Amino acid sequence: AIIDAIRSKDPDRFLFTIETYPEYGKYHWTGHRACNVSLPPEEAKNLGNICPVCRKKLTKGVEQRVDELADRPRGFRPKDVPGYKRLLPLSEIIQTVLGAKYPGVQKVWKVYNNLISRFGNEYSVLLEARFDEMAEIVDADIAEAVIRIREERVNVIPGYDGVYGQIRFPQEEREVEKEQIPNQTSKEAVRRQRSLADYM
Ligand SMILES: [Zn+2]
Q1: Is residue 191 part of a domain?
Q2: How far is the CA of 184 from the centre of ligand 1 (A)?
């Protein structure tokens, strides 16, 4: 029924469209995986799409391509589409909270299966499950993360050159900055950290 409602675009039947964050894709920003360089369209353009590390051509990301086509303003939405609801895959939310390297590891699936068996399916967990109901069967941090994703209180670090985007909860972001900035010796690295934070 959810699929029918999405296909029919009927706002009375389905009040929002579910999509993922475009930043989550692995070619969103422009960059070089091997050089650890990731740039928003404007910065890549200013550098002439040349990598500041290896001086070769950068792998152009989706956002820059869209900007170049520029036949519609950013944030444009077609008229008959109900509001967007942005979600992220449950297994990858759990992976992020547990600090697991891959979503496929057993400790992630154990939590995932607990939630699915209690609430029926992934959409019920992501869209409807109450915090206290979830916290009865899984770690409260997981329950909190699901609520945050639902309320879109999350940052996504854009993917680039084959590297997937990453889920970051604002709290984590502050911790990362605290850890890294006092130890930075390179101005470039500080600048890049700031531009990433600005983007959020
Ligand atoms: Zn490079």
Answers
A1: no
A2: 21
Q: 160 CA to middle of ligand 1, Å?
A: 12
CA 99 to ligand 1 center in whole angstroms: 28
Number of domains in the chain: 1
56 CA to middle of ligand 1, Å?
A: 6
Going from the first residue of the chain to its last (200 residues), give the mean pLDDT of each consecutive group of 10, the final group possibly shorter: 53 64 92 97 95 97 86 56 79 94 92 97 94 97 96 93 90 51 43 45
CA of 175 to the centre of ligand 1 (A): 28
Write the CB contacts of 73 (distance below 8 Å, at least 6 apart in sequence).
Answer: none
Query: How many CB atoms sit inside 10 A of residue 132's CB?
Result: 9
Predicted complex ipTM = 0.99
Question: Range of 40's domain?
Answer: 1-88
In the chain the beta strands, taken as DSSP E runs, fall at 16-19, 30-32, 37-39, 83-86, 155-157, 166-168
